[in-house]
Amino acid sequence: MKGGWVSDENTSQWRQMFDLNVLGLSICTREAFKLMKEKGVDDGHIIHINGVLGHTLGNLPGLIPYVTTKHAVTVLTEGLRRELVQLGSKIRVTSISPGSVDTDMLRDALPDDAEPPPALKGEDIAGAVIYALGAPKHVQIHEIIIKPVGEAHY
């Protein structure tokens, strides 16, 4: 999405982002919790893939709807943690927030003549997931923020 978001009339693209990043994450989380409960798993692990833009507004006016969905993920993740504590559950929750990742979305957001910024690869994010899953059962990896070396501040 290039340009400003208020001048963009592509509401279906906004809806798709919210459906995927907010509603999809919420449904998958609920179903994972239900399955763990049905199977008697009380020491499971739920991992949300967020983004650094879930923690800041950034300077990317054309991506405000996307940034909004990532802020929602931050709130949903913390709300989930609190609810699980209230339930007395030992299920851990980790949010992984990557910076720039080499994706079509990143390339599409750049002006046509722009040099691509330093970016992570999918394997880098997978490594963060493996790290969180490998923590001892009594350790809650609350948040992992992972950025490529040389990434400018948003």
UniProtKB/TrEMBL annotation:
One Pfam family linked to the record: adh_short
The question of whether Oxidoreductase is a record keyword is answered with yes
User: Which SUPFAM superfamilies would you find in this protein's record?
Assistant: NAD(P)-binding Rossmann-fold domains (SSF51735)
Q: Has UniProt tagged this entry with the keyword Oxidoreductase?
A: yes
Q: Name one GO molecular function term.
A: oxidoreductase activity
Concerning InterPro entries, the annotation shows: NAD(P)-bd_dom_sf, Sc_DH/Rdtase_CS, SDR_fam
Keywords recorded for this protein, A-Z: Oxidoreductase
Q: Name the protein family.
A: Belongs to the short-chain dehydrogenases/reductases (SDR) family.
The name of this protein is: Dehydrogenase/reductase SDR family member 11
